[in-house]
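Deliverable D5.2: sample structural annotation.
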Amino acid sequence: MKDITNLALFAQVIEHGSFSQAARVLGIPKSTLSRRIADLEEEQGVRLLNRTTRKLMLTEIGREFLVHCRALLTAAQAAEQVTQMVQERPRGRVRVSCPYAVSQHMLIKHIPDFMAEYPEVLVDLMVTNKPINMLEDQVDIALRVRATLEDSSLIVRPLAPSIQILVAHPDYVAAQGEPHHPSDLITWASLSMPYSSGRYMYELTSPQGERITFSHQPRLLSDDLWLLREAAACKQGLAALPRDLCRNYLADGRLVQVLPDWQLPVNHLHLVYQHRRGMLPAVRVLIDWLVERLPNTATF
């Protein structure tokens, strides 16, 4: 079996962003580290890094190679901590990704308690509404709000539904005219989260099962659902938002539900991770913690 030390060193160099920083963290001379990476490239017969005076840039094959080197590091960490669950408290870093709404409405209720229960676990929370690659971004746990998730390489745990509704300010509705059918909304201004496809569609289903889909061109795009809610409450247009996010605004009249008998597709909160084999104890206990608590407190 080949020595895999150089593969681990390669992953560490990328993790720390430079040979100098990696050498300091690892406690080895920079020249030694550079030579080991050069040996690795010679052994593999490909260039993995493009070096400049200011930064390192992975080659295309280097990016693919890095995924497997990081997997080796994760496996090594798991091997070192395999007895933690019975011998000591879980520890180490757990990297979590989630949308803003999930962070602000749900994790805010649970992460502090988890940290108190497991003081040796470092929670690295990446809050973003943009798609992520769990391998490339080194994410252990992802919380995603989607209608469905189709990546068969991931383990997906559905946790709770997220009911979406159309809302607008009552004065805006009055100015546009009370709608009775989705076709009445075609001329309305819309407020939306951005989508990478650039296609903005409303899909509505009537109580009788009639399905209507039509496109719209938003006049406000934002990842911030709170901003979209405020813009709708300030009479700037129509927004499709989580029902729970609008609950107080609906109660006091700042927003009204538009076409309440028609339903938007139901999204679901999913907890996603790569696999349980070789999983670090710290990751396992956070998964179990969230699976137990999030379905009972999901408001987003």
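Annotation notes: The two ends are 51 Å apart (CA to CA). The first strand starts at residue 49 and ends at 51.
The annotation will be released with the project's public dataset once the embargo ends.
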